[in-house]
From TrEMBL:
Keywords: Hydrolase, Magnesium, Metal-binding, NAD. SUPFAM superfamilies: Nudix. PANTHER family: NAD-CAPPED RNA HYDROLASE NUDT12, NUDIX HYDROLASE, NUDC SUBFAMILY. This is NAD(+) diphosphatase. One of its GO terms (biological process) is NAD+ catabolic process. It comes from Tessaracoccus antarcticus. Its cofactor is Mg(2+); Zn(2+).
Amino acid sequence: MNHWMGKSALERNVGVRGDADLDAAWQDAFVLEVDDQGRFSAVGSLPVELSPRDGRRASDILLGSFDGRPWFARPVLEIEQGDSATWREVDDPWQAPVASAVALVRWHAMTPHCERCGAATVPDAGGVRRVCPSCGLMVFPRQDPAIIVAVLDPDDRLLLASHSAWPSERMSIIAGFVEAGESLEQACFREVSEEVGLALDSVAYVSSQPWPMPRSLMLGFVATTRDLTVHPDGDEIAWGRFWSRSELQQALAEGEVKLPGSTSIARQLIEGWLVGTLPRPD
């Protein structure tokens, strides 16, 4: 089980959001600088706290408590690449506070105005929402749902596909955003049909993962199909095929195939299938 499937290491502190509470939390806080490109201060992949620390700003975001200390994210214009990392480079358990920091900093940067009246909004409740002083509308962080699905054929082979923008050896499973008025399961059927021309028979939910760049919530599924001929759309997907476990292991060993990063839900679903722990929905 990956850490996204259990209790979060980050305690959100929903009852500690008034100014006095925030000022008190600031006294012993770990403050992480984050820019709107999702980079944060780091040595290697280890988050580095701001030091020396000045007074709390209205734009500072209380993430919650982690490892016994309050954590704040401080939005900054830019962090030098040599002194920074991205959230995908961070190991568990640091991913929980860092993913929240990146998601919230980017959301604040992308949501400066009220969607109802157009007035400038301001951070509220320690940064977990924004409020419009003009019309009173409260705005909460946006996450865009996206499905990612491991497709299995009758012989329990796994479909992998290569995106048109990737090197040909880089492969993953099918993913895409959920359309308005569409269920998660319907999105699985549609995306697989659109991208590789396969008709699914059954779909089952497996697990989820936040993906703050851009601002997605990845919802992982496993599905079955009786179709064996892959028809890449030629737009998003350049090529794809079904792999047996032995074929994929050999291709990985020879460098013929490269999989998604180890922190991604795509990699976790693929590895679950490789070791036989990914359940078939039929």
